[in-house]
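Entry 0007
Protein: Epoxyqueuosine reductase
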Amino acid sequence: MNKKADYSKLIKDEAKRLGFLSCGISKADFLEEEAPRLETWLKKGMHGEMGYMENHFDKRLDPRLLVDGAQSVISLLLNYYPEKKQDEGSYKISKYAYGQDYHHVIKSKLRQLQEFISSEIGEVNGRAFVDSAPVLDKAWAAKSGLGWVGKNSNLITQKVGSFYFIAELIVDLELAYDTPVTDHCGTCTACIDACPTQAIVEPYVVDGSKCISYFTIELKNEIPEDYRGKFDDWAFGCDVCQDVCPWNRFSKPHSEPLFDPHPDLLDMTRQDWEEITEEVFRKVFKKSAVKRTKYTGLKRNIDFLK
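Output (structure tokens):
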């Protein structure tokens, strides 16, 4: 009996039952290829004001520094592609923020998976991560065969595209490991050509400090005037490089009720957005990731788009 393979199958079956799109497993090791890339990206200041990207450099590259005795990284994908989208001609928010904040939704599923592993396999120590710790999610997901990192620096999967969240469990249990898949971007440059602010400075390299998502979510100061008129009506985040990706024609609507949008969101007109009050903001985005910008941040973004 191959215990490692049996345990891996057990974990993958349970991940599927919990609603995850897919699950891949890789050996918890030092990310050798990523180290020079991350260093160069930081040195060029492509993280803008996201100072936290400079912290914990070593931990970002070695999960064994995050979890004592770490042996395996279990990577998971959770679909968020919506069935219905916002009205054309209105201000737009990223599709991932339509429903409830993904951090809470995924954390709860990860906890259930962790409890399942402990009850079925025994004493397994580990930690759950949902893009809130120094973990290079996309690198681990690619290493475990869930997709490849595309020219827009998003993880892309042949059958389902890229509209999903990535999370992981890092555990001190040895498992059967998956192998990476090949890159299927080919000669396509759709994402590079379509980026409204030319943030994809070369294939596979995104200058975070030029990205609309950075300006509308991360940047706390005023948005630079040079970018006025270039935001394509995005008020929170931006999906352009994903919307134009040919692989996203395979995206299918999610089945997670918590990701369904607030009923008022999809019908909001330009005028509704421009006249949004703090009360409406609190009601529509009560549990949404849009709360990160706060009411004042969203108002700043909309004023910049007018």
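Curator remark: The domain at 3-87+94-171 is CATH 3.40.109 (NADH Oxidase). Residues 59 and 65 are 6 Å apart (CA to CA).
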